[in-house]
Amino acid sequence: MKVLSTRAYPGPAFAELEDVEVRALAELETPRPDVEGLVVANEPVPLGLLPALRIVANYGVGYDRIDVAACAQRALVVTNTPGVLDDATADLAFALLLATRRHVVQGDRFVRAGRWGSSWADGWLAEKVAGSTLGIVGLGRIGSAVARRARGFDLRVLYTRRRRVETELGEQRELDDLLAEADLVTLHVPLTPETRGLIDARRLALLRDGACLVNTARGEIVDEEALVRELVSGRIRAGLDVFVDEPSVPGELLGLENVVLTPHLGSATRQAREAMTRLVVDNLLAVERGDPPLTPVAG
Ligand code: DGY
Predict the structure, then answer these.
(1) Which protein residue's CA is at the shortest distance from atom 7 of ligand 1?
(2) Who is most buried in 6, 64, 103, 290, counting CB within 10 A?
(3) Atom 3 (ligand 1) nearest CA
(4) In which domain, by residue range, is 62 found?
(5) Known catalytic residue at 103
C-alpha cells in the first residue's frame, strides 16, 4: 500500500512502511490515485486529491481538524492514537500547574537577566500547592492520569464528566461550580462542537482571584480573547500549551509574567511519540491486510 505521510514520524516502526512518501499536504497539487494510506497530525485531508484513499491514520488522539463525516461517506477508515500519550500529557499538565503556581519560569528569567541581587524576591510569594483544590475539566484517560498525580501533591480533586460517575479520584461537580471552587483548573476535554468556547468570558470570570488555568487540550476550548483580557488584568495565572492559531500565540501574552507558554508539547516524550508511530503503523498495516483497524474513531 502506498502511504503518504506529512512527516517522518519518530521511532523504528515508521521504517516498517515499505512504500512511504513524506510530503506536506500543501505540496499536493494534482490528484494522487496511487495513495491508499495517509498519515497526518490532525490536518485537514484533501479528499478530492486522494481518490484511492482507504485509511487516514491520525498521529495524535485529537482529530478535530479531520472531517470524519466526509471520510465516512467515502467509507474511509479514520484512526487515532488514544492511550499511549496519557502519561506524557498528564505530566506536562502537572508541570504547567506547578510552574505557573510557583513562578518557576518567571524566576528562571529573573536569574538569567542577572537581576538576582542581594535580597530574595519577596514579591513572588506564591500560594502553596499542597492542600489546594484542583479542578479537572474532563475526567477521561488523561484527566484521570492527572488526578492520580494529584494524590502525591495532597490536592483535593474536583472533576467534571459528561456522565455521572462515582470514583475515588475525586468529587464530581457541574462545570460552573468547579470553576468557582478550584484554585487550579486543568482542561482535558476533546475539541468538539460542544466544547468549542466552553470556557467563555462568563466562565473565566467564575475563576477565583489568583487561580491557575492550564490548557494542554486545544486552544479553541477557551475563548482566547477573553482569556487574554483576564491575564492582562493580572487576576488569574495560566499555563498554556495550546493556542487557537498555532504556531501563532497572541502577542499580548508574550510580555506577561503570569502566564507560562509551551509549544504544544503535551505528547512530546520519546516514549509517547514512538508509541504513537507504532499505533499509526499498526493501523495502516491492519487495513492493508484487510483486518479491522486497532483504534478507529467513531464516524
Ligand atoms: C493529540 O494527541 O491530539 C496531541 O495534541 C498531539 O500532540
Answers:
(1) 267
(2) 103
(3) 62
(4) 3-83+269-289
(5) no
Residues 29 and 117 in one domain: no
- Identify whether 218 is a catalytic site residue: yes
- Reported for 42-51, long-range contacts at CB under 8 A and 24+ positions apart, including other chains, are 42/66, 43/6, 45/71, 47/71, 47/74, 47/76, 50/4
233 is a domain residue: yes
- Cell digits of residue 162: 459528561
CATH number at residue 174: 3.40.50.720
Q: Nearest C-alpha to atom 2 of ligand 1 is from which residue?
A: 60
User: Is any atom of ligand 1 closer than 6 Å to the C-beta of 100?
Assistant: no
Q: How many domains does the chain fold into?
A: 2
Residue 129 φ then ψ, to 5° = -90, -55
Query: Distance between CA 2 and CA 23 in Å, rounded?
Result: 13
Residue 266 near ligand 1, beta carbon < 6 Å: yes
Note the pLDDT of residue 201: 98
| Set 218, 237, 273, 278: catalytic member | 218
Record the cell numbers describing residue 211, joined without a space: 487561580
Which residue is closest in CA terms to ligand 1's atom 6? 60
* Ligand 1 atom closest to the CA of 60, numbered from 1: 2
Cell numbers for 288 = 492493508
**pLDDT tens-digit readout, 256-277:** 999 999 999 999 999 999 999 9
Per DSSP, the three-state class of 159 is strand
Interaxial angle between packed helices 141-152 and 86-101, expressed in degrees from 0 to 180 and rounded to the nearest 10: 50
